[in-house]
Amino acid sequence: MTKLPTHTDKKLGLVIDLDTCVGCHACVIACKGWNTENYGAPLSDQDPYGADPSGTFLNRVHSYEVQPSPSDAVPAPTAQLIHFPKSCLHCDDAPCVTVCPTGASYKRVEDGIVLVNESDCIGCGLCAWACPYGAREMDAAAGVMKKCTLCVDRIYNENLPEEDREPACVRTCPSNARHFGDFADPDSNVSILTASRGGMDLMPELGTRPVNKYLPPRPKDAPVDILAPFLDPVADNPKGFLGWLDKALTAMPGGTK
Amino acid sequence: MPKDQPEFDTSPFVSDEIRKTTCYMCACRCGINVHMKGGKVAYIEGNKDHPVNRGVLCAKGSAGIMQHNAPSRLRKPLKRVGERGEGKFEEIEWAEAYDIAEGWLRPLRETAPEKLAFFTGRDQSQSFTSFWAQGFGTPNYAAHGGFCSVNMAAAGIYTMGGAFWEFGQPDWDRTKLFMLFGVAEDHDSNPIKMGIAKVKERGARMIGVNPIRSGYNAVADDWVGITPGTDGLFIMALIYELFRAGKIDLDYLAHFTNASVLLNGDPKSDQCGLFLRDDDGNPQVIDRRTGHLAPWNGAGVEPDLNGTYRRAGVTHAPAFHKMAERFMDPTYAPNKVADRTGIAAERIRAIAADLARVAFDEAIEVDQEWTDFRGKVHPKMIGRPVSFHAMRGISAHSNGFQTCRALHTLQIILGSVETPGGMRFKPPYPKPATAHPKPHHGYKAGQALDGPHLGYPQGPEDLCLQLDGTASRIDKAFTWENPMSVHGLMHMVISNAHAGDPYKIDTLFMYMANMSWNSSMNTSGVMDMLRDKDENGDYVIPHIIYSDAYSSEMVAFADLILPDTTYLERHDCISLLDRPICEADAVADAIRWPVVEPDRDVKGFQSALCDLGARLGLPGFVNDDGSQKYADYADYITNHIRRPGIGPLAGWRMGDTGTQHGRGDANEAQLDSYIANGGFWMEHLPKAASFYKPFSKAYQDWAVKKGFYDSPQPYIFQLYVEPMRRFQLAAEGHGPVQPPKHLRERTKVLMDPLPFWYAPMSDATSDPVEFNVHALTQRPMAMYHSWGSQNAWLRQLHGHNPLYVPTKIWEQHGFTDGDWARVTSPTGEITVPVAHMAALNENTVWTWNAIGKRKGAWALSNDAPEATKGFLLNHLIHELLPEKDDGMRWANSDPITGQAAWFDLRVKIEKSVAPAESQPVTPAQNAPVPNGPDALAWKVGK
Question: Model pTM greater than 0.95?
Answer without folding.
Answer: yes
